[in-house]
């Protein structure tokens, strides 16, 4: 091969040499990246979603099972050589055989991508049958990080995994990383658990007790520490991240659900982390605090997605404040109208106090025993009795239906 001395020729030669050494070389803004990988976790394949109706459960399960293919497609599209799954790939220690097989089949569809699965607290090493099946049936491009020992990802990069030995190991499984010398190789840690002294935040995860030191990446000289357990993406430090689950599974507010695309050029160099959205469904929680003069319909419509997007939404509305019986019934009628647009729609009106007025009570009855009962319930409801408020609302709804 003849070289003109141009930069492109030297870049091509460098790429050829690195490929021969088992490296994947990509270019980003003129910089040569020795490794580019996806960091994900908490797929929870096989999660039953028992609180939902059967059709919603089915949609949630199918969407969750498709995460592996979406990660594989993204890895190919962005030229990532590896996908690192930081624990809880499976929701339980005994997932259905179909869930395991479909995951393995999806991994094998992307033979140019190397996958690494770490045992988490939901699928710990205590699940001996699960890991026996995975070892037996794993495709060639799947690595199982079941030992606390270094795994070579390429000629310049080593992975230091901390597999969960049990659902609650009760100790810092990342400690061994400090004393494992790898020279000038890029060092990537892979762990599952909670950061010590960091549990005051919301949605810390499933593991009982924080055991991973917040400075582990520094003490172990890691270029990147990929952690799982929290279902929301969190940046602990510039090179220590919880990726969060790629597909949302609760109404808690998080950063955009997806995965991290990480690029590292050399040991000691800053990792470049890009947050990539990946979720297909949206879980939305909406708090509405009303006064008796608020126009609920306008407030509500300003907060919900376009009608053509609603099929991808699970929507939870919590109402607080005070409204008249008529306005409360208007809200209920509106909910009934829009609910079928959504994959799932639920409302909690227990915090909404009733402000009865004569016009509303007259719709129940103007005289007689029924009106007397309505007056008594109205008085008790104004005093904060939620049972009375609920009964009065039902009575009003019945009267409206009879009108």
From TrEMBL:
Residue ranges annotated for the Calcineurin-like phosphoesterase domain, each copy included: 35-202
Pfam families in the cross-refs: Metallophos
Coiled coil: none
Keyword Hydrolase: yes
Gene3D superfamilies in UniProt: 3.60.21.10
GO terms, molecular function: exonuclease activity
Keywords for the protein's UniProt record, in alphabetical order: Exonuclease, Hydrolase, Nuclease
InterPro entries, per database record: Calcineurin-like_PHP, DNA_Repair-Maintenance_Comp, Metallo-depent_PP-like, Mre11_N, UCP033093_metalloPase
Name of the protein this chain belongs to: DNA repair exonuclease SbcCD nuclease subunit
Organism annotation: Thalassococcus halodurans
């Amino acid at each position: 091969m003849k070289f003109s001395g141009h930069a492109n020729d030297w870049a091509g030669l460098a790429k050829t040499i690195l490929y021969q050494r088992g490296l994947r070389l990509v270019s980003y803004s003129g910089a040569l990246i020795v490794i580019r990988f996806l960091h994900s976790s908490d797929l929870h394949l096989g999660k039953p979603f028992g609180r939902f109706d059967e059709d919603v459960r089915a949609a949630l399960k199918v969407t969750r099972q498709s995460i592996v293919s979406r990660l594989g497609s993204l890895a190919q599209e962005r030229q990532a050589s590896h996908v690192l799954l930081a624990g809880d790939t499976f929701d339980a220690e005994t997932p259905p055989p179909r869930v395991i097989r479909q995951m393995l089949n999806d991994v094998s569809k992307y033979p140019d991508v190397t996958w690494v699965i770490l045992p988490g607290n939901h699928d710990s090493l205590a699940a001996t049958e699960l890991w026996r099946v995975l070892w037996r049936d794993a495709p060639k491009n799947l690595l199982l990080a079941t030992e606390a020992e270094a795994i070579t990802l390429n000629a310049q990069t080593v992975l230091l995994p901390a597999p969960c030995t049990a659902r609650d190991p009760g100790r810092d499984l990342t400690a061994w990383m400090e004393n494992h010398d790898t020279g000038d190789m890029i060092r990537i840690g892979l762990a599952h658990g909670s950061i010590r002294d960091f549990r005051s935040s919301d949605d810390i995860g499933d593991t009982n007790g924080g055991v991973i030191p917040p400075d582990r990446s520094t003490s172990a000289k890691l270029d990147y520490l990929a952690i799982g357990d929290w279902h929301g993406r969190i940046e602990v430090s510039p090179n220590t991240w919880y990726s969060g689950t790629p597909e949302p599974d609760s109404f808690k507010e998080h950063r955009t659900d997806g995965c991290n695309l990480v690029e590292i050029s050399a040991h000691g160099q800053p990792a470049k982390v890009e947050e990539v959205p990946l979720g297909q469904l949206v879980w939305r929680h909406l708090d509405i605090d009303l006064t008796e003069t608020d126009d609920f319909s306008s407030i509500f419509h300003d907060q919900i997605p376009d009608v053509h997007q609603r099929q991808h939404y699970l929507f939870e509305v919590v109402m607080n404040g005070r409204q008249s019986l008529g306005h409360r019934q208007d809200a209920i009628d509106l909910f009934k109208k829009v609910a079928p647009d959504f994959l799932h729609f639920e409302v909690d009106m227990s915090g909404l106090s009733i402000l009865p007025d004569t016009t509303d009570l007259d719709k129940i009855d103007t005289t007689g025993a029924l009106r007397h009962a309505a007056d008594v319930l109205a008085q008790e409801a104004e005093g904060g009795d939620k049972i009375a408020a609920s009964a009065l609302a039902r009575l009003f709804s019945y009267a409206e239906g009879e009108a």
